[in-house]
């Protein structure tokens, strides 16, 4: 009895004092107590009463409430008053179910949810006595009804509701199964599951799957068959894949029969091309694979379709197959790897096939599959090795990435061979300067994997003096270090510097810190890492003094990620070497020089140097230098700031003297940042901190130049003030009449101002984090940041202040509730909202008051780290309530004042809400308020005040994509797609759906144009929804409302507004089945012109969605309306729409084209005539016989739309593998003899495309004026150059070729030509590669120079195209940097050129070219004006290569 006394005592606490630990103790005690007599029953009754009181009073924490409810049901098992308490539970649940929609004040949702949770989480249902079946029946029914109701709502309870429903599995197989899973409930649960696959709340989809798994266990046979058939009838979407995956998981028969009968393979393969479906498709594929028993079954099911994907031209599909399907497939059936590789090797040799092969080899390599390990296999490992070697130098970036990954991840038990080392080093050398970010990241990651394994193998290899493997390892390590040193020292492009630093970092990381995995008995005992071994043997070169000094020099690189990467490298691995008085003083002196610069990026370099000094001092404070402690640096920076502040000096003079405040403020930022990170306590007087706070408070107000501090200066006043600062400084500039205010000095002053504000806010944020327990400091810092946000308008300043505020709020909100400072974020938000909510009517425009207001509120709300995000919910509730309570009429009296003097409060609040809605990090939390937000947006879209309409439109634009699951596709169909269908939208947003239906059904219009215009946002939502998929059980219930809505939508097809007709046609196809639409369209008789146009758009959409299943019926409709159009003279808009889906079988002649052009000309002023004529002619161009093409071209040359038609002709030529050469030649001659030959860009583009298909034997140079246009090529006639080159290289006229090659060389210069012209130069220059040896040396020199320049072009497309120059000559396809290096080799040049002196000419010309790049006038206020227009070109490396080549030649 003592145990029961203890339980009673623990349950006797006040509800407010109960914590989870107390409930856990009661639970454990109840489970331990096994006695169950009359006396103990009384105890349990008393305990139960106490617990029930706690449950209905509700505990402070919801998790504790759930636990308490579980405890209640656990104790309930022990008492005899079960029916009484179940009735109490039933009463509470029924109260929630019967609650009126508007009577939310009496809601006890959290209590009801906790009671539902407890009954399923405890063991109560498993021990339930049969005596209470009637009560239990009612309670379970009520619980089921309540949970399914709440599961459709987006609230904070949605997740826990689904969590409870996953526990329905407990009653499967018990007496309660028939109660909970009766037929009616099965159908309700099925609909619920189907409407939640796109639920945006995190975790719901997985819980939904578990509920579906449970439902499949209990579905009766008839419903199961219906469900399977109807899922099969859905179009392929996420819901279909996920439900079929679960059905397959529970299927007991032969999987091949199930898959084949239902034709699922096409759908599975389809998912590979769709980024939004690939994951769900992979789940279904995994389910099929799990049930597949043999490789033969897989081959029968998948091989042909998989090969179609792997040999196709959809890169994304191949990548998705590799990432989602391949690994699991090969893991289960290893013999498929050689089979797939052999099949691909027997196919065409396209880049796609090569990439597919590489992907399969990669996944096989991950699994350790090789030809030797697979019995009865003809697979040759050498083929694989050759492919990988070939892939390492391939022009296609993706192929190179995978090839290198194969080498890096290959499974091995011994040290690599010399060949592999060579391949690794060559790959690094060839790709170190690549500007492909994906390749760079992949290369660094895979090199890290390789070096990690290498270190492990080294640690597991016994060292002997004559060990060849060990010697190869040493040689590789030396060569790798040499490569890093040379690459860092070469002053290459940004990509080379960044990648080299990263490589150095991973070399040091992997060779220093790895703990070996003990693999075999041969593992030797050693405490030496590979770095230690190399140091002992004299082969470690990365600690050389000159290398360290070069790294220190790179700290002055203007690129942030380069000097930050160097800082990380030095801080992690070189502190010992840097802990030297000379180096410390060198760093300090260089840092101070940079700090004194005018330019922000040089100041940033100085700050990085100080950061390194601080890191050194934190780890070694015994170095004698100018600054010996962090406090010394703090005092230095603080004194400089104090002197500058107290002198009140002109900001322009501060810039000239190198005393910009932000440069010293950022040093203080670094001190506090590093102190926080290293938990270092600074010895700084509190007075100094408050003095510093006063200074940064002043600095943060540098954009406040007006007396009224509650308003910020607009942009013109900001600009005037900057100019005033310059004028009063007395500084003479080159451009004193800078009316545009974009002079270099003007920009530097403006930069200094906003960077001062930025640094002040960042320092204030760091002071909050450092003094997070000091209320006075935190309050002052918050005031500084928020005031900057309220009074600044500069985008950089307010974004920096917003970020700083976010960091401060995160720090404060993460503190324990007991601390006073943890309440500061809530107080700040409350005060700011109070200012905004109650002062908006008397303040000026919110945009004039401060552009940072919405950022300020958003940062406070979104950075709350407290559980449950109380700041977010307080903000949302406050603003929504205010928006609902505001009456527009109260401030509509003075329209002039409203429009011109101030924003409306409601508009301001809606703008703030929009800011929150657009934050993806708050997406799940925002869904709780979607119904209210949507009502707010829709109700104000037709507001008579433009400010509110504008705000509502922005909220609508932010919210609707979230409601309909709209996301940007990144696959083969580059378009925005929605994933939520109308039933899911309706069931989750019933109020919004009701509002939409009400608006559409409203037909008492006074002004139909205005009424239909107001419907556009609503129709846009319905048109943007995903196409409907639903079970018949639910469709039958919705049938009447659907039919009622259809009649209203059909009437909107006759709207006088085109957009309304277009959106309505999309709405109808989204919501209704084809059978319903066919019956309606078949029986329509009365047709106005607008109505007919709407009907035709509807049929066009039907063709888009249903043509693969309902083509016969669609063609029947097409014929019907084709006859309607023939009988009546309808508009060209109708004819244009009909032509989109009507396939005419008429014989296309030149007369048809003439008739269309004549009709277009005679009816030129009728709406839609140009659309109709253009689409008709384009369709004819695509389908006409080749014999008609020349005459058609001749006719179309005179039209205004010739450019459009040229593009269509080009598409036809590119897609036709075997065009008729005679007709193409005739077409070319017609174009060349045209009067507009020197006026049309498209004409030359078309001619060039014709020349790619056939040999044109035309004396191009006989065309009058051609030489002039070749010599001085305009952008309009750019395609003249590659076309002329193609013709002239075949005619071998040296004089003309020389003229062309010179023109091409001039076009290669990035200083004078944009990327389009350089692309044209590349196309033309590639033509010289075919017969390069056959031209004169003068032509070859120009061609080679052009190729060398273009292979280093800033644009990747130009470089990739230029490799064809090398390929046309050598017949080898390599990537640009390899081609460049090969061309610059003496062997290549000697092979091509006739005269040895020609090499010298090339070198001299290219050296002159390199020197001319970026050689502009020096500008002391704008260093960027001295930059080259080709930042990819490695000038120093190219000069070095050319100089070496010159020496070799001499």
From TrEMBL:
<dbReference type="InterPro" id="IPR056842">
    <property type="entry name" value="THADA-like_TPR_C"/>
</dbReference>
<dbReference type="InterPro" id="IPR019442">
    <property type="entry name" value="THADA/TRM732_DUF2428"/>
</dbReference>
<dbReference type="GO" id="GO:0030488">
    <property type="term" value="P:tRNA methylation"/>
</dbReference>
<dbReference type="Pfam" id="PF25151">
    <property type="entry name" value="TPR_Trm732_C"/>
</dbReference>
<dbReference type="Pfam" id="PF10350">
    <property type="entry name" value="DUF2428"/>
</dbReference>
<feature type="domain" description="tRNA (32-2'-O)-methyltransferase regulator THADA-like C-terminal TPR repeats region">
    <location>
        <begin position="949"/>
        <end position="1100"/>
    </location>
</feature>
<dbReference type="InterPro" id="IPR051954">
    <property type="entry name" value="tRNA_methyltransferase_THADA"/>
</dbReference>
<protein>
    <submittedName>
        <fullName>Uncharacterized protein LOC113399036</fullName>
    </submittedName>
</protein>
<feature type="domain" description="DUF2428">
    <location>
        <begin position="714"/>
        <end position="947"/>
    </location>
</feature>
<keyword id="KW-0819">tRNA processing</keyword>
<dbReference type="GO" id="GO:0005829">
    <property type="term" value="C:cytosol"/>
</dbReference>
<dbReference type="InterPro" id="IPR016024">
    <property type="entry name" value="ARM-type_fold"/>
</dbReference>
<comment type="similarity">
    <text>Belongs to the THADA family.</text>
</comment>
